Automatic annotation (TrEMBL), chain A:
It comes from Cercophora scortea. Signal peptide: none annotated. GO terms for biological process: proteasome-mediated ubiquitin-dependent protein catabolic process. GO terms for molecular function: ubiquitin protein ligase activity; zinc ion binding. GO terms for cellular component: cytoplasm; GID complex; nucleus. This is GID complex catalytic subunit 2. Keywords: Cytoplasm, Metal-binding, Zinc, Zinc-finger.
UniProtKB/TrEMBL annotation, chain B:
Involved in the proteasome-dependent degradation of fructose-1,6-bisphosphatase. The keyword Zinc applies. GO terms for cellular component: cytoplasm; GID complex; nucleus. One of its GO terms (biological process) is proteasome-mediated ubiquitin-dependent protein catabolic process. Residues 331-392 form the RING-Gid-type domain. GO terms for molecular function: ubiquitin protein ligase activity; zinc ion binding. It comes from Cercophora scortea. This is CTLH/CRA C-terminal to lish motif domain-containing protein. Keywords: Cytoplasm, Metal-binding, Zinc, Zinc-finger. A zinc finger (RING-Gid-type) spans 331-392. PANTHER family: E3 UBIQUITIN-PROTEIN TRANSFERASE MAEA, MACROPHAGE ERYTHROBLAST ATTACHER-RELATED. Residues 163-220 form the CTLH domain.
Amino acid sequence: METLAKDLAALSKMAGLAAAVDNIDQIIEQLSRARDQVAQARDPHIASMTMTKLQNPIKLGFDKVNDSLKDVASRNKKLGKALDKSFPLEDLPADHDAMANQPALINRAIAMHLLREGQFSVASTFIDEAQDTAASHHGLYSHLDSHDDTTSPEGDVLMGEDDSSQGDVPVSMTASSSDHQDLSSLQSQELQAKFAEMYRVLQDLKARNLRPAIDWARANSAELEARGSNLEFELCKLQYVWLFLGPGVNGLPDDEYNGRSGALLYARQRFGRFQPRHLSEIQKLASALVFAPNLGQSPCRSIFTIDSAFTDVASSFTREFCSLLGLSAESPLYMAVTAGALALPYQMKFTSRTKSRGTEWTTSTELAFETPLPKRMVYHSIFVCPVAKEQTTDTNPPMMIPCGHVLAKETLQKLCKGTRFKCPYCPSEGQIKDARQIIL
Amino acid sequence: MADQEASKITHSSHLLLDQPLLRLPYELLRKNFRGAHFHFEKEASSVKNLLRDTATGSLDGKVSPDDVVKNLDTMLARMRGMKRKLSAYAEEEAHLFKQVDARVAHLRELSDMQTVEDVKYEAWSRQRLDRLLVDYLLRHGYNDSAQSLATERQMEDLVDIDTFVAMSKVRKSLENGSVQEALAWCNDNKKELRRMNSNLEFMLRCQQYVEMMRAGAELKLVEATTHAKRYIVPFSSTYPNEVRQIAGLLAYQPDTTVEPYASWYSHERWTKLADIFVDAHNKLLGLPSFPLLHIALSSGLSALKTPACHSSQATSSSQPSHSTSLTTSVCPICSTELNELARNVPYAHHTTSHVEHDLLLMPNGRVYGKRRLEEYAGKAGLPDGQFKDLVTGETFPSDKLKKVFIT
């Protein structure tokens, strides 16, 4: 890129088409001067003289334009060479487009991405446009829309309040989802309203106003608790600290609801319900009142350094908020595209290698090559059977044998002699009935 | 460490998706130059001829001074017109160079980053996503959405709205049953289309013929025959089958059910023409034939997908909606947005296990890392020696837990 930037800088110094325009200007000047001469004299002799004299300069003028154009052509050519050198063209995989027959699902993913990014106006333009297109296709070629209508989750599910029954049941499937309905469920504004709420709360958090976040956490405390989230307490704790630091730091009015007394008041009102779980922390917070004059040297000073506290609670708020909607905290579309950019080189390397060998890889259930991703992009535990070197699946689940080692079920079946087997990793032996399926 | 390897940015291959970013303005620059050059040649030769004729005519006394002035006026008008045109081309050229500059600057930002963990990488990658989204939106003709996203993100120089809007105009006109715009485009790109062996113009001409046949009136049929003689028959050696079918069409009414004539009369041909046009357009400008987003998604979905993502049982490390906040986040493939989309792509290939440390098996068959269990027990306020299942919420005493060894 560095060299390309340098080449480009050199190229931009070269004259472009503007030079040709200047040359044309000269021709126009000569022509109009000649015109004026002939028009003034109105004399055949002068006219023919002028015209004859005009021939060469004009020809030269056109030659100059031509030269300028040649320069432009060579500049373009140089740009092309610079591109080839720094950024050689590589063919992208183009043989099959696995995504082509899923426009409805992609559109939905994009609409949800825009909503979660807070791009509400873009999202609503997009939903309108996509629906118009879908509608016009309905009208004109209604038969084209019969593509797989059976395989999309209904949008409503993701907007429904989370309830405990959803834990084990994957998102329920319903049997209708053309492009049209999918997006209209998004347009029903529920999701939009949710994300708008999220953005309002985040905005307030940014402005260091914790109340809306606390209200939300309280309203959803049952779900949060089930998730083992401390968000509500963390928020209340931060509010206590925030009040404690007093008007000098938080800029709130200096009254009885602020400062140390305000913090104490707040603690009395709110901390009661957290006592069973967070007693020790509440004690620490309360003892701060004792150390107050000289907090910096006290054992609880770490609680009161709140440099990153607001951004931390903001990100855990986003995470909890999205999780309660059944959504991941990071935009999945962003993660997928970033992962795609990282994985693409491996795919291309693999395809070029197999192509040159004449063996082509056809899409099946598993990729044929590794696509290493950074750790934070690995979301599930992955168990690869150490014997079969295969990932375990629903039909071939991991099994733990009595000695504590884990093998894939199929491996275990192959290892078995009768009902007994020997562990491939330690000297112990076991019976097949003692092996048990585990869920990683 | 392997993770470092995985998060390293290999600059040479990380920009595969970004090739059109610079290739397209380059192609447009060339096209722009061709346009300017063509226009100049045409006008220049006519001005030169007129000048020579006027000079000789004036010498021979055949052209009066008044006519000389008139001719000079014509030349001036032509030259001024040429100047206007070329100025427009020059402006376009400057605009394209500005785009190239902005794009190179954007790509250069990446060369300062060594790993994807770089704080700046996320912003860069987000911008890439926005670019891919605009590309996708434009290709589907969602022009307003594309424009508003580009404006909102202030990245007009990084996306090719004009090119695609122009394309979608032609495509729409085809979908609405008009060939004029597409024919004009063919005319503008005649040489390149010929070099590509594109059949676009031929197909458009055929469609014109079909429409004349459809109109059906006597006069139209004569017109159709003339049209066929002029535009279709010359291609009889290149596209013998089509030409034969076109000739046969004369014998069939528009409502025929006999193939292949019925499909010639079918309205779906317009959609097909639109597709042929889009293909030719993209090929001409060196654009991939389908949205870059598709390429990124199909490779990214697979790389992220695991067998657990569409598993019927909630695994211990995945948590559709009802998860614990101890695990970092809901997996993007399990998240509603992408779950269905990823259903039919292959899952990633792994040769080694990735599991938590110190795994413990609960009596209900679920396995968790020790640290996670301890943390959760602490947060749930359980007494010492008790652990709670992160998914099901059952509690077990620690002596019921068994160590699991992953080799």
